[in-house]
Design goal:
With 341 residues, the protein is mostly beta strands. It has one domain: Tachylectin-2, Chain A (5 Propeller), CATH 2.115.10.20. It has one helix and 21 strands. The strands form six sheets. It has a four-stranded antiparallel sheet with strand order 1-2-3-4, with no helix packed on it. A four-stranded antiparallel sheet has the order 5-6-7-8, with no helix packed on it. The radius of gyration is 19 Å and the shape is globular. Belongs to the glycosyl hydrolase 43 family. Residues 1-21 form the signal peptide. Pfam families: Glyco_hydro_43.
């Protein structure tokens, strides 16, 4: 067997490996942290934030190695208010570095109306977001007032976009859809919001009619927008939209929606309800990584919202020949089971 042939064979075998067989992580990375968001900054650090089970604060961590994320200092950078706006259900923080400053986008309700939730933003000019002062920049307005959560932002070809979840203004029942709009600053959108996806398939309507938690991955001249669907129990899963990066991303016709979930519960690996993901890369930028939460058991007692055991996990993404991501199935890990609060 020639050296060239051996190389080609090894490469083919490597490409054929499913995501679950790729080199992995010490999962779960962080216990009892849902809705994880990780960003690899130019300083070489991974910055991490997530929903805490008490729903009362925002924490940040940083590390150069994702595998030791659970051991990194968790610094509380902001706490909920005692009353009024931002006083309940502090959910889904995301940390983004834009034009030389750090921004935390998050969801919050009010103590007197916990589910009357909206999008809010914090700003910090320090080089290290675990330091400096976080300034409240108020509500991020979307054009109408209704149940809104899970904001993310991405720049494509020099234009920054906001993608988020909201109840449509014409909805006659409780349901959520994913929207996108251009941003004219890190604190505001410009132009009308465009609905990209609403629950239509059975797998998007298990328990609740939900499309939420968009996350963007720009690769191979395309934009892949994942989102989470159904109730936050074992039904929770990822769907995906895709569009050409050169397209008008605010045009619904530019997007193609997968008719099937792209990532879902696996009895084989013992991971249930994988979702609310983020994307990052290896330190050298050559390997794409899916970060998400899941539980190590299927059956939940009571409301899933009060079950704290959604743990942060990560795994390598592989790519199909057509240039689309293959997330595989949630990889097995140490099953920590149920943990007390």
């Amino acid at each position: 067997m020639t050296r060239v042939f051996r190389f080609i064979l090894a490469l083919a075998l490597a490409l054929a490996l499913p995501a679950s067989a790729a080199p992995g992580f010490a999962n779960p990375l962080v216990l009892q942290r849902a809705d994880p968001h990780v960003t690899l900054h130019a300083d070489g650090y991974y910055y991490y934030t997530a929903t805490v089970p008490e729903y009362d604060r925002i924490e940040l961590r940083r590390t150069r190695d994702l595998n030791v994320l659970g051991k990194a200092e968790a610094k509380v950078v902001w706490r909920k208010h005692a009353s009024g706006p931002m006083s309940s259900h502090i959910w889904a923080p995301e940390l983004h570095h834009i034009d030389g400053k750090w921004y935390l986008y998050f969801t919050a309700g009010r103590a007197d109306a916990p589910f009357d939730i909206r999008l809010y933003v914090l700003e910090n000019a320090a080089a290290n977001p675990l330091e400096g002062q976080w300034i409240e920049r108020g509500q991020l307005k979307t054009g109408w007032e209704s149940f809104a959560l899970d904001a993310t932002t991405v720049a494509v070809n020099g234009q920054r976009y906001l993608a988020w979840t909201q109840r449509p203004p014409t909805a006659t029942r409780h349901m959520t859809a994913v929207y996108i709009a251009r941003m004219d600053s890190p604190l505001s959108i410009t132009g009308p919001a465009t609905m990209l996806t609403t629950p239509e398939y059975p797998w998007e309507k298990e328990g609740q009619h939900v499309n939420e938690a968009p996350a963007a991955l720009v690769r191979h001249g395309r934009v892949f927008l994942t989102y989470s669907a159904s109730a936050t129990d074992a039904s929770y899963c990822l769907g995906m939209l895709s569009a050409a990066a050169s397209a008008d991303l605010t045009d619904p016709a530019a997007w193609t929606k997968s008719p099937l979930p792209v990532f879902q519960s696996s009895a084989a690996t013992g991971q249930y309800g994988p979702g609310h993901n983020a994307f990052t890369t290896s330190p050298d930028g050559k390997t794409d990584i899916l970060v998400y939460h899941a539980r190590g058991y299927r059956d939940i007692k009571g409301d899933p919202l009060h079950d704290p055991n959604r743990h942060t996990r990560a795994q390598v993404i592989t790519w199909r020949a057509d240039g689309t991501p293959d997330f595989g199935q949630p990889v097995a890990g140490v099953n920590r089971g149920r943990q007390g609060r």
